[in-house]
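Researcher: Going back to the complex we discussed earlier. I've cleaned up the inputs and rechecked each line, so this should be the final set. Can you rerun the prediction on the complete assembly and write out the structure?
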Amino acid sequence: MPRISIREVAMRAGVSVGTVSNVLNRPNLVAEATRERVQAAIGELGFVRNESARQLRQGRSRTLGVVLESMANPYFTDVARGAEAAMNTDGFDALWCTSDGSVAKERRCLDFLEEQHVSGVVITPVGLDQGRVAELHDRGLAVVLLDRRTQGGVCSIRVDHVAGGEIALGHLLDRHHRRVAFVTGPLRPGPVQDRYTGAVSAARRAGLGESAMTTLVHREMTPTAGKEAARRLLDLDPLPTGVFCANDLLAIGLVNELLRKGVKVPAEICVVGYDDIELATAAAVPLTTVRQPRHELGWSAATLAMAEASAPEEHEHRQVVLSPALVVRESA
Amino acid sequence: MPRISIREVAMRAGVSVGTVSNVLNRPNLVAEATRERVQAAIGELGFVRNESARQLRQGRSRTLGVVLESMANPYFTDVARGAEAAMNTDGFDALWCTSDGSVAKERRCLDFLEEQHVSGVVITPVGLDQGRVAELHDRGLAVVLLDRRTQGGVCSIRVDHVAGGEIALGHLLDRHHRRVAFVTGPLRPGPVQDRYTGAVSAARRAGLGESAMTTLVHREMTPTAGKEAARRLLDLDPLPTGVFCANDLLAIGLVNELLRKGVKVPAEICVVGYDDIELATAAAVPLTTVRQPRHELGWSAATLAMAEASAPEEHEHRQVVLSPALVVRESA
DNA sequence: CAAAGATCATGAATCGTTTCAAGCCACGCT
DNA sequence: AGCGTGGCTTGAAACGATTCATGATCTTTG
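Model: Rerun complete. Updated structure for the full complex:
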């Protein structure tokens, strides 16, 4: 099956290739009769524009790369949908990659995106050093960092997780819990660390001693890890009465396991989550949690990237910080 | 910033463009000294291959499109990871799209993939008619249908959901439940309908009358819908003692809401889910469910697509059917 | 020593599109 | 009649990589 190019279309419609291209890209320049003839030829032959050729010629591409940390966490997929929505309204396409938290895979993603000539990248960086950012930037790519602090030079959009941590632990303290625990994944610099910092600061402000807050670190932030966390938690003596989990998946696993062990939530132990994913509402005990504006996060990130990609000259880098908010349900 | 092309590299290394291309693609044809000089130039200039130009020239592309129904359901993301793993081992790249169950968006995805010149498509079709499949096929694309029956002409890989439905309801019947319910999303032809068919057939075989199984249809298959389903379920009179949910998310929402209403699972009502997502293990009541080989599903689909894409001539279309299996935990 | 290989390097042609200077034509105006 | 104008169309030159017939240089061999 021979591939149909603009050439065949031109032949069939009895016009030049230039005219076909005009029909495709600037239809108003073409006389109506001609336009219709060309459209017809396109339909009959089943012509599909070759995006590679188009990009090659144009230099730029209306495509953005998005590198997410994982698809397993609904938080990320919600962010992704926000980004996708923004791109669709502006006629951009997205190339999705997941780094799965691995530096090597992240590098592979970026290489792939660069070869694909995306005009910008939205990324939740795992092992991304300033050097690589600068490199991408030098090559003319718009770069937007998601949920990572930056010291200028790039656009970034993040949620104030220190505030989030304060809100979460603050809520427990307001309810007079005096022995608390923080359940988390690896404390790498970034969102998770910030939540910890916020929690610590809230504890300190409430006059709690160092030892009043136990931190349980797990390798992952999954429901399964939450389940394990519940077991470790129950071994603690004295038993904390308030638990702040670094994300909702952890919290859900933890609450479920506590219930199974006969520990009542919130009567005996209160739990606060983080993210406010859909499942938080439908959980066994509807989860009190800290809502992140996930959709907006994705949307704004994509919008910033598109703006920079479309007009790199007059673009000024912005660091957007969004605020989290407490959602009180039943678990605390 | 001028983009670095093979030309600049050639100049810098003091060789011709052809040689640089050889270093990139057939390094063994190039003398070691030259090769090293070129590699050095590539490094110094930060050259990145322009994939558009490459594809344009080569005609083919080592890229596969994957169109999934949704990113919100962990089931799909697990399938996706299986597919990605297979592609990575064979040096293929993936372009991800989600149709979100919308026919229009599905069409947009396919248009996008075709313009990107992918060499094959793995798809969970929503509104895909035979015509569109044939069209893609005519244009030389390898097509693999995921989780959809086909009458030859294309590769497909699916799970035997009729068997799955039978297993699920069969399990409830084996445990002597005589009033049962099937909770589901829209009964469109496909996996969901098949599960229903399986359930009905199991019921019939056990000699249950038509009215012994109530079917509750919801618009979505989310935990939130499961929550609603619980409310509707409790209105039923007589109350079913066994419930089969068309996926785990529904089941989880349903179980959680039942617990909240003080209904004991499995003591008063037994629940069987479908999919065996990670959350099934960590649920409030660990879920008895029907496991699908998700990873294998994705892996095999990608493998089939790559095989067809690499050697279209000698390729024979295959219809693979995988078997689901019951995983007994605590909910039933 | 001439001829035949072997080994590498070259550079022009090519992929399918966009872009743009140039051309054509019909029309109205002076 | 001559000229300008506006509306449409044309065709050739890019874009950056790959490919391949050709050539250059060096080795081997009878």
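Model: Worth noting: Residues 60-159+294-325 of chain B form a domain with the Rossmann fold fold (CATH 3.40.50.2300).
Researcher: Good, that matches what I expected from the previous run.
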